[in-house]
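tool_call: predict_structure(chain=1)
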Amino acid sequence: MKFHIPADVPEKKVAKYKKNLKTATNNSGHLMLFAGDQKVEHLNNDFYGKEIPLEDNDPEHLFKIASKAKIGVFATQFGLISSYGRDYKNIPYLVKLNAKTNIIPYAKKDPFSQAWLSVSDVVAFQKSSALDIKGVGYTLYLGSEHEHEMLKEAAKIVHEAHLNGLLAVLWIYPKGNFVKDEHDPHLIAGAAGVGAALGADFIKLKVPYTKDGTFDPKLLQEVTTAAGRSGVLCEGGAKTDEKAFLTELYEQKSIGKSRGNGTGRNIHQRPLKEAIKMAKAIYAITSEDATVNEALKLLK
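tool_result:
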């Protein structure tokens, strides 16, 4: 695959950027992002409860999975990487720079999520820790009354990541009092276009639904086209049946032309051995061109 190199990546950082992109995507340009940022975003709802294994309540469960499974990058907060990084140096990391809890309902107050740290902080940490940090991530909420501040911060983060040869992944979710349907295909395509305008390498987006709330992979085509050279990553959502999840993943890629996924709960809400197998199956479809049947065999 021919890899696009953004013009704001300095010549002396091109080799580093290309290495990060190629190794994170298995030379495919398709990124399997293991999402481990929900400790803040969803508090403990995703890690403790009925049908969730007790081991998932321990943050180290995420690192055990990421260290033993095939993944593109493991995205989580700086503090967790700092706490566990010395014991899990083989993991390809993506540092999530911002996060907010879900305590305040969107109906009460429009969301606003600012960066906790800078790209410079991540670069310094990468040098001092020698960890395999491939990029940074940032969430912004379109439609929020605070979107202008998040847009400005996102633009700066993407540019500074490129200046240092790092990948930049944006989570872009329309949320707030003026957003009536966050799964509206046309609105999601608009979010994809914003991600392209910000220069993101990959954009993690909601999955577009039909008016009756079902998934149609053809709806993704407007989204992926609007994203231009930025790769669309579909969110994984709540844990569901393995075959149904992998089939949708395959259709997102083969029909909708997505370039990856950001999956958390469908991986980590399982005992370690099962989680590792599920991650490998997702990676096989995403970055190894596997069929659904080939991926299902990895679960056995």
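agent: The radius of gyration is 18 Å. Proceeding to next step.
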